[in-house]
Write a structure and sequence with these properties.
11 helices, 517 residues, 8-stranded parallel β-barrel, alpha/beta
Length: 517
């Protein structure tokens, strides 16, 4: 009875909802790099993930072709490497040349063999059809180390490190454009973490040296895109002062400020389902605060330069223990979350939050890509699997192109630990090149919702596709025994007249509707 009273008082479910979007209410152009991902030397992300020599599906370089096929299908555009926490203790020189040096990895209490390093990653990126995004070590590393990695990767020839690259792997420079200057340097868990002023000064000097080596200005066409570390999450005691201080040191050199955030279905919460469903609103608030901080520093400096956001770690992460006690083995099984239908619905809302901030978010990296809190899982010597979160990402990456359009939603709402959230979470995209309008909708209500769609100024629309992920078992997941237990299901296309359509969304569901004109 108590639960029913709570439901009646604290939830404002409406069985009808409306969504209005007009072509002229543009949020911003969607940068394809928001469909990025992340590979760190953590657990089985690299070894037994993207790289497994001797596997039946491995090519001559040890890259798993079955995994590459799934990554291409997923639509990933850019991949951040090699960390993550790992990078703050990493010497990139250990992972080049014929003689590799195995090291203790203090970040994840493992042994790093270094058999996969910078050259392998660059070759893998080419095979997988993704752009590289390199992180440099700002923990044990120095600005000089970062400069020498840049020289190795990007300088054509005639210097020690550029000629070493030519000898080791590639006559042509790699042309890496995106560079992350450190990782989560505000975290007490980070190897050689720093306070904001110390990091800001170090990052500024590093950025300046990279710019000098690149010989192009920050806003020049084709120039480096430098990412400085913002707060690693919005619950840090130093947030958002960290972001302000770092930007005050680096503003004119930086292109992007990083954000990291993970969400969790926590059964110890008072209302775990509602709290989990409120995750997208928390992500949106985090983005808004960081954007405001960027604007403050821009005004403070009277700058004409713009800094945007790189949300270069985000996902659902339900395992509470981020590492094991030191076991000093190579590629231990760590953070191999099994994603459920419940996770896919919340994940879809997080994707909507990114799309609805396309004016400020120019890069985002789903963390991670394979095995470790990932949309793709592999078996050693065996197959590869699409997890439930694979599908909302795939649809967004394929169809969420062009521009994001502001959606005005009228629906019920519910309380959660983050505040109040709408029962209907929506993003709308418009791609003039393909004459496509897409609606990504998460129904957080625990009953079906009838939704009136009004899509104005796009032309004469017809519904080309409607797919849905839903079901009575929110804990259902894909496994190697049942790899397609939770997949998008085709729904009947709705008739459209004068840009108006009526659609019924299943309870607790993720939905994708595609309209053409």
């Amino acid at each position: 009875m108590k639960g029913n009273i709570r439901a009646a008082v604290k939830k404002e479910w409406k069985m009808r909802a409306s969504v209005f979007a007009d072509k002229h209410m543009k949020i911003g152009n969607i940068d394809p790099n928001i469909y990025g991902s992340f590979i760190e030397h953590l657990g089985r992300a690299v070894y037994e993930g993207i790289y497994e020599p001797g596997h039946p599906a491995a090519d001559g370089d040890g890259f798993r072709k079955d995994v590459i096929a799934l990554i291409r299908e997923l639509g990933v555009t850019i991949v951040r490497y090699p960390g993550g926490n790992f990078v703050s203790g990493y010497d990139w020189r250990d992972g080049i040349g014929k003689q590799r040096k195995a090291r203790l990895d203090l970040a994840w209490a493992s042994i790093e063999s270094n058999e996969f390093g910078t050259d392998e990653f660059m070759k893998w990126c080419q095979r997988a059809g993704v752009a590289p995004m390199l992180a440099v070590n700002m923990g044990t590393g120095t600005p000089k180390d970062a400069l020498e990695l840049f020289e190795y990767c990007n300088h054509p020839s005639g210097t020690y490190y550029s000629d070493l690259r030519r000898k080791n792997a590639s006559k042509q420079p790699y042309g890496v454009r995106y560079w992350c200057i450190g990782n989560e340097m505000d975290g007490e868990w980070q190897i050689c973490g720093l306070d904001a002023d110390s990091y800001g000064k170090k990052a500024m000097q590093t950025a300046r040296m990279l710019r000098w080596a690149d010989a192009r200005k920050a806003d020049e066409e084709g120039a480096l895109q430098l990412v400085v570390c913002g707060s690693c999450h919005c619950d840090m005691p130093t947030y958002p002062e960290w972001d302000r201080k770092v930007l005050e040191h680096t503003y004119e050199e930086a292109n992007l400020l990083s954000m990291h955030r993970y969400y969790q279905y926590d059964t110890s919460d008072k209302h775990p389902l509602e709290d989990f469903l409120g995750s997208a609103d928390n992500m949106s608030g985090f983005i808004d605060t960081v954007h405001s901080t960027i604007n403050y520093v821009k005004a403070l400096k009277r700058s004409r330069h713009n800094v945007y956001i790189s949300f270069d770690e985000w996902n659902i992460w339900s395992q509470k223990t981020p590492r094991t006690e030191p076991n000093w083995i190579r590629a231990p099984h760590l953070l191999e979350d099994v994603y459920t239908l419940r996770d896919a619905i919340v994940f879809g809302g997080l994707m909507n939050a990114l799309l609805n901030h396309s004016d400020v978010v120019r890069c985002a990296c789903l963390a991670q890509l394979v095995n470790v809190i990932a949309p793709i899982m592999t078996e050693k010597g065996g197959g590869a699997l699409r997890q439930t979160i694979y599908y909302p990402f795939r649809y967004a990456a394929k169809y969420g192109r062009g521009e994001a359009v502001r959606a005005i939603v009228d629906c019920g709402s519910f309380e959660n630990k983050h505040g109040r959230a709408d029962t209907l979470n929506v993003s709308v995209t418009h791609d003039a090149a393909t004459r496509t309008v897409c609606v990504f909708a998460c129904n957080y209500a625990q009953s079906a919702q009838d939704v009136s769609l009004e899509l104005r100024s796009f032309g004469e629309l017809s519904c080309a596709e409607h797919v849905c992920m839903c079901g009575s078992d929110l804990s259902a997941a894909n496994t190697f025994a049942s790899p397609e237990k939770v997949t998008p299901q085709a729904c009947e296309c709705v008739p459209v007249r004068d840009g108006r359509a009526e659609v019924k969304l299943a309870p607790l569901s993720w939905n994708f509707l595609r309209f053409t004109y």
